[in-house]
Amino acid sequence: MDFKSLIDGGIIVQQSQVNRIRSREDLKPAATEYKGKSYSIGRMPTDREYDDLLFGWFIEQGVSSNSVLYVKDGVTVGIGTGEQDRVGVAEIAIYKAYTKYADLLSFDRYGMPYKDLELDIQKGNRKESDRAAIDEETRDACGGLKGSVAVSDAFFPFRDGVDVIIRQGITAIVQPGGSLRDFESIEACNEANPQVAMVYTGQRAFKH
Fold it and tell me: What is the pLDDT of residue 208?
């Protein structure tokens, strides 16, 4: 239980959220109706994707709202939080993933983080081609995001946030659902090549 004092002397008391998701059976296929037409997701998650989606949703319970995170093979790849829109927070998580991926490559090759490599180039101790090679490999790998899953603590009000996620090679998404325009997110997943899986929790993760 968290207690936070307000400037006017008031107190906010927040209890830990009870997560209703315990297993893959608690996750529902993304489906909705809009103006009399039914929409449903074309592909369900694989076993590996289910494992990552569940792990990510468990992690999401402790991440401050509003957030999007990416998970691959039981590891968080990028976490974005604190933004007021799905696009912004999805992009922050992508930026973090790219930054960490470039750092990893730089450490493996030169024993230093990417920023220190940049300084070495400025000093003439390294070649610009050293950084360019890391940049190219990071872009090709989408910062390690290819094959990962995305977790959103709130629904997507429009498809633009989903489109941002899909462009990074994400293969499955879990979100609460409940937007009036859920059909747009479903269409974005079904139109992707290959198709992206999407499931709903029916419950928002909320932490401030």
Answer: 66
User: 26-94+144-200 maps to which CATH number?
Assistant: 3.40.140.20
DSSP single-letter state for residue 142: G
The pTM (predicted TM-score) of the whole model is 0.90
How far is Cα 70 from Cα 76, in angstroms, rounded to an integer?
6
Decide: 205 and 57 in contact? Cβ < 8 Å: yes
Closest-CA residue to 145 (of 197, 71, 196): 71
b/e per residue 81-94 (b: at least 16 CB within 10 A): bebeebbbbbbbbb
Sign of the CA dihedral 181, 153, 85, 96?
A: negative
Cα 194 from Cα 45, distance rounded (Å): 12
| Residue for token pair 């992009």 | 91
Residues 6+ apart with CB under 8 A from 79: 63, 67, 68, 69, 70, 93, 96
pLDDT tens digits for range 75-123: 999 999 987 889 999 999 999 999 999 999 999 999 999 999 999 999 9
Q: Hey, what amino acid is at 160?
A: D
Q: What DSSP state is assigned to residue 13?
A: E
Alpha carbon of residue 99 to chain centroid: 15
